[in-house]
Amino acid sequence: MRPTHLTPLTPLAFLERAAGAFADKVGVVDGDTEIAYGEFAAEATRLARALQASGIRPGDRVAYLCPNVPELLLAHFAVPLAGGVLVAINTRLAGEEVRYICDHSGARLLVVDAELAATVAPVAAALQTVEDVVLTGDADLAATAYDELLDRGSDAPLAFAVDDEDATIAINYTSGTTGRPKGVEYTHRGAYLNALAEVVHSRHSADSVYLWTLPMFHCNGWCTPWGVTAVGGTHVCLRAVRPEVIWRLIDERGITHLNAAPTVLIGIANAAAAHRVERGLVVTTAGAPPSPTIIAQMTDLGARVVHVYGLTETYGPYTVSEEPVGATEAEPSQRARLLARQGVAMVSADPVRVVDDELRDVPRDGRTMGEVVMRGNNVMKGYFNDPDATAAAFRGGWFHSGDLGVWHPDGAVELRDRAKDIIISGGENISTIEVEQAIAQHPAVLECAVVGVPHETWGERPKAFVVLKDGHSPSAQELIGHVRGRLARFKAPDEVEFVTELPKTSTGKIQKFALRSRAAATPSG
Amino acid sequence: MRPTHLTPLTPLAFLERAAGAFADKVGVVDGDTEIAYGEFAAEATRLARALQASGIRPGDRVAYLCPNVPELLLAHFAVPLAGGVLVAINTRLAGEEVRYICDHSGARLLVVDAELAATVAPVAAALQTVEDVVLTGDADLAATAYDELLDRGSDAPLAFAVDDEDATIAINYTSGTTGRPKGVEYTHRGAYLNALAEVVHSRHSADSVYLWTLPMFHCNGWCTPWGVTAVGGTHVCLRAVRPEVIWRLIDERGITHLNAAPTVLIGIANAAAAHRVERGLVVTTAGAPPSPTIIAQMTDLGARVVHVYGLTETYGPYTVSEEPVGATEAEPSQRARLLARQGVAMVSADPVRVVDDELRDVPRDGRTMGEVVMRGNNVMKGYFNDPDATAAAFRGGWFHSGDLGVWHPDGAVELRDRAKDIIISGGENISTIEVEQAIAQHPAVLECAVVGVPHETWGERPKAFVVLKDGHSPSAQELIGHVRGRLARFKAPDEVEFVTELPKTSTGKIQKFALRSRAAATPSG
Question: Domain A12-195 is classified in which CATH homologous superfamily?
Fold first, then answer.
């Protein structure tokens, strides 16, 4: 028998707590629909019973292809409550990719939102392990209706508890730009601890009204389905991330918190409806290094910007950029520059390191580049059914992020590049992030990306792709001169191409491989 | 080898984090002395090395008898860093009690603050396991000087890590009013999780400036030494709890948070220097049920009152009184009445229950009384070297608090009494807490306590001991009438005795056993 003083950690306990402490409080909002926590927990039990009645056994995978709707939020509790493992699939993927993930994870059930039925329709018949496709809403797909699934359930209580906190609660497939996606395994313990860390660093409380701008399929929404529930905050669901809708909900629902990639923040800050939020707003951002420019803009709008950094392999956020000592007295641009660093390990994470090829710490000089490595409770258990990739990622006992950065004397880590994005020009490293941040400081620039293009003499040279703000038209030379005024001359791009938008992944990461192909295909000059 | 994704939970990691993220930030304040987190962590290593050099081996107990000084705060990290177990002793105990605790815990070292040397002097020679008494400052006690102890240390790094998260980090002796004190064992895992829960519920952040009004020897200061450090807040030490000093520090140091028993809050709220704190202040209170009156008073002063409840056996707080839905719109006295309930389990605790003698839930009707029971990560490992007491406390797999309460329909628990304090009058239970809260609503009353006195006809009848505010002199009849206007007539005390102060334990609990003896010795009439 387990000692009375040890309860295995699981985020399931958070919904049990919310149902006990906030039974009548609104836990979930979807348009005009409001669901109290007591009812939400009852729904989780009903769905978990329905999954069990559908044949889901402990450890079985249940896949979801849904935008940020209450059904997917519910799945974060109901699937593990049934003993299952949640596989939340990226909604922007093609049918063939969805099929691969379902097959690779061995999912026995796939729940599809009606608006994504067209993605699944062409591959539904080819799914190898899925026994049942369930459809929410009406669409042209031969499938079980969601209500039909629910009808298999019951209200017979299930324990919001697990026997083994190291058991897998979810598998999240990385949207790798090369190779097949890998399934990142999250444990109950890791999800519990990361959720609490999100609560601490984003300062969530029972007063939180959290807007679901960040996709729940992305690292389980950085564990926020569990964290906001733990403290009895309110989830506000959101199907599509459109700045005008976000501003309307900020005003109408009194949103206090949202998470979003910097590119989404750029849209929010530059929307026609943008205005100062006097009662405050916490904006937690990650997915790409935010430029000091967008940090300063959001701060001007009344937001507290919490900048975090991590990967799918680290449950989303692993580090947080803590407000540097004396930063409130620093001038705003200096403060924003400091906050744009990736920072230090979150409260539940082991210390982050920047290391050389032999896993030795690089000097904390803010200059020497190394790879960012992590380990401990905020790092995945491994890649599902892929021991070779797992061993490679964990070589030397540390998870290798593939991100290159420097270590500052004050302990903060700052990314310089993805290992594959770094530009090596005449033997010198050029951080594309550094160049991008210099360009973004130009008042005419909305967004930009820098990639390396092959060069006969130097090996590689930087090229910038720039989206301008409406009504601005600086020349390429003006932007190049702007960068030369801020960085070493060799870091300035040789070439600037003006574009109307940048290619991005569904989570807002700029697809540099696409820009590199494009640069290669467009002879310079 | 331990998997890369599992790091045993320990509060030691919190100081490592603070030293990494906030090396130059002030972590500890003591009068005019300010210690940065980098230096504080270095001191922890030095002291841990000194303890090891003094013969402390893994699992050895190290006792401290100190007020809230930096040395005791440091011990919360340095002792476990050395592999030891901290025994922080109540500073109000008599020498003989200190001796008992040192001997029972088998402490090998005892660190004594100079102002408490007189307590130890008479028993120092009788200590059976203590090999070394260390004295901070100058006093009349044959002992090793604290600096001499430190000189044995070194800066050779130690890992801020443990192999077993279920290992004991501290033993806290309960100041039981009957029998010998029992040693409550806290684990690294439990301390880690409770510390995070304190951070969440008291809303600590790197902006926290935390005033040490709560004794650190009491449940390790509710794990706050570890929690405030985890987020990089600042600790402000405090030797003696005096309202005028507290108000000076609130103003001069910009205190944002303090923890204190309701009796301390009464002193703070009624001090001459009391004034509204416009920038806000979080006051977390426990140790006795706060009256709605003091909650309303503190709220008027600009404080957010967080009411928590627990016991030494539950790492201090186990439940928190969450703001009820719609309470902000409720009238202030109604809101205060709801917040005065003990509430629901904290975020890291298993659900709290109120049960009958057979461990069955009592109805959630707000009327049926039962015993409050708990279990899980926020409950002690057991009583040190006392398997019988441990088995008795955990009978049926639940920790028995000995507190009687009711369960409200909204899930909140509300204490009615300690099992031994309840008054049974004519077969009816009378909650002394309920009667005290009614008396406290009278504008002339500063503080009061109600106990049962033997009565021929009814078995027992309530008697009130009342401390009046300066310049007030209501009659006993007036107060009795005041209670009759608020509660069932049979609950009103038959007798009121005006006193200048109430007997209290060092942690602010009113010693009802002393009042009962006094009532028995003073024939009524």
Answer: ANL, N-terminal domain (3.40.50.12780)
Q: Where are the alpha helices (DSSP H) in B353-431?
A: 387-393
Q: Which strand (E) or helix (H) includes residue A433?
A: helix A432-440
Strand partners, B448: B466
Residue A271 DSSP code: S
Estimate to the nearest angstrom the gap between the alpha carbon of A129 and the chain centroid: 28
- Using the Cβ of B270 and the Cβ atoms of chain A, whether some distance falls under 8 Å is answered with no
Q: What is the pLDDT along chain A (525 residues), one digit of tens a residue?
A: 677 999 999 999 999 999 999 999 999 999 999 999 999 999 999 999 999 999 999 999 999 999 999 999 999 999 999 999 999 999 988 899 899 999 999 999 999 999 999 999 999 999 999 999 999 988 888 899 999 999 999 999 999 999 999 999 999 998 654 568 899 999 999 999 999 999 999 999 999 999 999 999 999 999 999 999 999 999 999 998 999 999 999 999 999 999 998 889 999 999 999 999 998 899 999 977 788 889 989 999 999 999 999 999 999 999 999 987 666 666 777 888 888 899 999 999 999 999 999 999 999 999 999 999 999 999 999 999 999 999 999 999 999 999 999 999 999 999 987 777 888 887 777 888 889 989 999 999 999 999 999 888 888 899 999 999 999 999 999 999 999 888 888 889 999 999 999 998 766 778 888 898 888 776 554
CA trace torsion B311, B312, B315, B318 (10° rounding) = 0
* Under 8 Å between Cβ of A345 and A317: no
Task: Find chain B residues with C-beta within 8 A of A311's C-beta.
Answer: none
Task: Please indicate whether, in this complex, the C-beta atoms of B344 and A21 are within 8 angstroms of each other.
Answer: yes
Q: What CATH fold (topology level) applies to the domain A241-418?
A: Rossmann fold (3.40.50)
SS3 B145: strand
DSSP string for A32-66 = TEEEEHHHHHHHHHHHHHHHHHTT--TT-EEEEE-
Where along chain A do its domains lie?
12-195, 241-418, 429-521
Distance CA A1, CA A3 (A): 6
Residue among B14, B22, B375 whose CB faces A4 most closely:
B375
Set of chain B residues whose Cβ sits within 8 Å of the Cβ of A9: 377
* pTM (predicted TM-score): 0.90
Q: What is the CATH architecture assignment of B37-186?
A: 3-Layer(aba) Sandwich (3.40)
Helix and strand element counts for chain B (H, E): 17, 26
Packing angle of the helix pair B37-53, B70-81 (nearest 10 deg): 60
Report DSSP letters for A308-324, one per residue. EEEEGGGTEEEEE-PPP
* Cβ contacts of A121 within 8 Å, gap of 6 or more: A95, A140, A141
CA separation for the pair B280, B254 (Å, rounded): 10
Class for the domain spanning A429-521: alpha beta
Q: CATH number for B423-521: choose from 3.10.290.10, 3.40.50.740, 2.60.40.420, 3.30.300.30.
A: 3.30.300.30
**A461 Rama sector, left if φ>0, alpha if ψ -120 to 50, beta otherwise:** beta
- CB-based contacts of A489, cutoff 8 Å, min separation 6: none
Helix, strand, or coil here: B396?
Answer: helix
Fold match flag (B37-186 vs B423-521): no
Chosen from B1, B2, B5, B187 to mutate, greatest number of chain A CBs within 10 A: B5
Tokens of A239: 């199907």
Question: In 3-state terms, what secondary structure has residue B309?
Answer: strand
Residue of B nearest to A165 (CA): B6
| pLDDT digits 0-9 by tens, A39-97 | 999 999 999 999 999 999 999 999 999 999 999 999 999 999 999 999 999 998 889 98
Which residue of A2, A4, A14 to mutate against B (max B Cβ within 10 Å)?
Answer: A4
Alpha-carbon gap, residue B229 to B215, rounded angstroms: 17
